[in-house]
Structures are given as structure tokens and as C-alpha cells.
């Protein structure tokens, strides 16, 4: 997927309502997880990403700063993110507990 033409989200859009359910892609454009929810708002918030599993079953929730993900909208308006973390790096993070 070519993200160059996708519109980057601004600071006010980095909210749970906008980002929950967004697909997160790694550095090789591979699917690495899905945003479950956020703790806080804006770039300082923590994104809880479900990594691995199948259809959310067996997925490991991990927390990373929203500032580590470049969130954007594609031509259809679908929100997604790109991070420098690959799936193995995310799986190596401690499991997030609510």
C-alpha cells in the first residue's frame, strides 16, 4: 500500500473514537495489529494494540505511544497507522493488562 497520498491525522483526531479498530502496519507494510483502544488523547496517549491471534482470539494486547505510529486516512477515509515496529518487536513487549 502506498501511504504517500494518504492524509495524516492531526493532533485533535488522535482519540479513542477515531483510532479504535484501526489496522496498524509495520515497516514492510505487513499487518502487525489492530488498535483496541487508547489511554488518553493526542500524541502522548498510549495505543493498546492487539498483536497476533486470529480475529482477535489469542491476540496479545501491548501498549505503545501514539507518537510511535503515523496515523492517516486512505482515499476511502479508512484510518490506519504505520509504525517502525514489526510484529515480533510488538509481541516482545509486555502484555497490557487493564
UniProtKB/TrEMBL annotation:
| Source species | Paracoccus aestuariivivens
Which SUPFAM superfamilies does the record match to this protein? Answer: PRC-barrel domain (SSF50346)
Q: Which InterPro entries match?
A: PRC_barrel-like_sf
The molecule here is called PRC-barrel domain containing protein
